[in-house]
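Forum: Protein Structure Q&A
Topic: Joint prediction for protein chains with partners

I've read a bunch of threads here and the consensus seems to be that you should model interacting components together rather than docking separate models afterwards. I'd like to see that in practice. Below is the full input, 402 residues plus whatever partners are listed. Could one of the regulars post the assembled result?
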Amino acid sequence: MRRFSFLFALALAYIPSVLAQTAGKPAAVPNIPRTAEGKPDFSGIYQWPTYLPGDEHGKSNATTFDRKYFAPLKPGGEAFLEPRTGDPRHDEPRDFCMPAGFPGGILSGNAMQFFQTKTHLIMVHEFQRMTRIIPLDGRPHREGLEPMFYGDPVGHWEGDTLVIETTNFRRWALDDFYYTNPKEFRMHSDAFRTIEKIRWKSKGALSYDLTVDDPKIFTRPWSQEFEILAKPEWESAGIYEYECEENNRCPGGKCQGK
Amino acid sequence: MPCLRTSFALRLSFVVLAMAAFSGSLLAHHSFAAEFDDQKPVKMTGTIQRVEWQNPHIWFYLDVKNSDGSTTTWGFAGGAPGQLMRRGITKDQLKIGATVVVEGFRSKDGTNNASGGRLTYPDGRQVLTAGSQDRVPPATTTKP
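Posted by a regular:
Agreed with the consensus. Here's the joint model:
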């Protein structure tokens, strides 16, 4: 009887994880930081999103997407992959201090800091001091805006996962992969939309799942999961200033010495 | 002076670790591909004339003696200040007036500019001034 009770208790203990897996939801992580409202708290300083084991690394320090996750291109979607032209205004607009855009900016190899309130998550990235102000209060996307480099994000909670949808992008570089393969300059379209899913996956590490939805380019949305490591040891130094125009050597796309 | 020695050893260890971590990286996130020719490695000895510890990339300038006795000032681009500082490399590690060897890649436009990937002091101490994504020349390079 005692043995039966033990096995019964063991079976009961497994039910939640089995249910979670069945529902496709990640198992809850115990003892994560939480806000006064009981939501997961992402406030803190972090490394930029980095690769999971087994994923292809680009040849720069910035994280890039692994092509194995791409959905097939649509007919007409070939414009997504275009070669460098030799014109820095096309090939590397950041060379003359144009913005990296999203998600290229968040994938750049610099520190970032998150500030979370009941109504907003603020992401500040050291590269170009990229700032994303993400409402969490249920408001809809803004209307009537011109297409943007960083898009218009809104977030909501699904259990302990923060889901951020960003829309209203202009056509711009998806990531830094052109430094790995100059013939693969990845340009998303103006129909681009992203879904980010952020959750604590373990103590000191966030799961960062990024969905690319570009119906002018791909036959379906596709996703890649990255990892964001907390870096409390960077708290004292904080985010360094990054004022690109301070010593811009390529004004107007024309690089020059000094 | 044990504290100073410890501090120097720690810094040196950090730089060596940083070099090990980043020496395999290729092109820059920012300006390398547009500005510098990775087929033209340079290695020059000179004295540090001035340092611009500024974004988006630091620049430092070296007075290099030519074979005819004249002096040419060469400019070298490094990483972003924030990236370097987080790797433990600070402005005071580039001493004005110090004689150093700098290795990098020459500017595409033919001016006296180059990327400055690695800086070596006469005592062998090295400072990896490259951006974390800049290419660092192999150990044996030639003067242009």
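The first strand of chain A starts at residue 44 and ends at 46.
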